Fold:
Amino acid sequence: MFALTLQGGTCMSSAPDVCKTPTPGGPVPIPYVNIFMCNMALPNTACKKVFISGALALNVKSQTAISNGDEAGTAGGGVVSSKFIGKGEFVSGSKKVTLEGKAAVSQGATTKHNDGNTVGLCSVAAQAKVDVA
Structure:
């Protein structure tokens, strides 16, 4: 699978991001699709010296400050995390390739969304030159 970088890529929840959403009758848990974009990764969590196709590479310690899709869930946030628009992070990486001492992440890597309120995977990589086993 192709390595993930700050150049881009999309990680999408595979299970609903259930958030408490305001309604006239009070908060109601509603499922949302949640995504985060690799180009939104916090620069201090990306690799410092490893570039792929001109962009900083990502590893399992990389994370984004926000994820998107659950913006309406403001009446208490996620049923697990109590957050909405929470951080996105990687759960798994390569068992064979490390970048700056941590497992490299690639298309297909498992992820946590909205501060761990739901799980997903990276479905799109921004580059198609470097494969990670």
In short: The mean pLDDT is 96.
